[in-house]
Design goal:
Elements lengths: L6 H9 L11 E2 L8 E2 L49 E6 L2 E4 L26 E10 L5 E2 L4 E5 L21 E5 L5 E7 L11 E6 L13 E5 L3 H7 L6 H7 L20 E5 L3 E10 L2
Parallel strand pairs: 5-13
Antiparallel strand pairs: 1-2, 3-4, 5-6, 5-9, 7-8, 7-10, 10-11, 12-13
Length: 287
């Protein structure tokens, strides 16, 4: 793997990152008068994963006037651990510093294939992830121009750049800049469930695409998960056999990230295991 193969800076020219420990911050709910503490989120990885992923909301967050989000979504998504496999330059793998942010081509929507000289392609049930970024600091107005770095495990529960057999791959990782309505979209595969964690997706939020080349600039690290009915259906698909047994031994209540609630971290999902799924979430951050 080429750890320094042009990277985000080259992508910007052409088109225009140590693992945390546990949940660390509170989110504030702005709904009329007062504010309230709300639950944090988590994401799955490997049996040693501490939990990390994408924050999600039960509301789809269609644009309403200039806010583009419902009042329920007008809260900062919980801060979560990035887990042991962030690939953002803050820790190391068998090859040295693991940094997908410096890879040529990392700014992309379809994250199923590896880039920068690696050739692997992740197999699994198709999944489209749509996240809408809103700025809580300005009353949950849309946040165009902000960026998200997103990553998650394979259907077998491994992480590219880290897990045995896929250390030299970098699929299921990508960066997207929010469009004029705050949306980022990733085409990927449905993540598996590894032992000890509820299925999840990880992400980091950056104030701009230009600043997404260094993990030092991230303003939020979080995770999101999926409804149990979706998980049970998705894992009937080929290749997800181990996820069925792993899921039977874990729940949101016993997960070390989602045990305090999933209000802002539960994606809204449509679709099926044959044709694929679309997961939607409004992500509130303070920019």
């Amino acid at each position: 793997m080429h750890d320094h193969d042009h990277g985000l800076s080259a992508d910007l020219e052409r088109l225009l990152g140590q693992p945390a420990s546990r949940r660390q911050s509170l989110r504030w709910l702005f709904a009329g008068a007062g504010s309230a503490m709300l639950p944090l989120a988590g994401c799955g990885g490997s049996s040693g994963d501490d939990g990390f992923g994408i924050s999600t909301s039960t509301t789809t967050g269609n644009s309403t006037g200039s806010t583009g989000a419902t009042s329920a979504a007008c809260s900062v998504i919980p801060e979560e651990t990035g887990g042991p496999y962030p690939g953002d330059g803050t820790n190391r793998n068998a090859n040295g510093v693991a940094n997908a942010l410096v890879l040529s081509g990392i700014v992309r929507s379809d994250i199923r294939a590896s880039i920068a000289g690696a050739s692997g392609v992740a197999a699994g049930v198709p999944l489209t992830i749509r996240l809408q970024l809103v700025n809580v600091a300005t009353g949950c107005t849309l946040a165009p121009g902000a960026a998200i770095y997103l990553w998650h495990c394979t259907r077998e529960g491994g992480y590219s750049m880290y897990s045995n057999g896929i250390v030299n791959e970098n699929y299921l990782r990508g960066v997207q800049e929010a469009d004029s309505e705050g949306w980022v979209t990733f085409t990927t595969i449905f993540p598996g469930c590894y032992d000890g964690r509820m299925p999840h997706v990880h992400f980091e939020v950056y104030p701009t695409l230009a600043k997404a080349g260094s993990a030092a600039n991230r303003v939020k690290t979080s995770q999101f998960t999926f409804p149990m009915a979706t998980l049970n259906e998705a894992y009937t698909a080929s290749g997800y056999g181990s996820s069925v047994s792993n899921l039977s031994r874990i729940s949101y209540a016993t997960d070390n990230v989602f045990s305090d609630g999933t209000t802002l971290q539960m994606a809204t999902v449509s679709g099926n295991a044959t044709q694929g799924y679309t997961a939607t979430l409004v992500v509130g951050v303070s920019l």
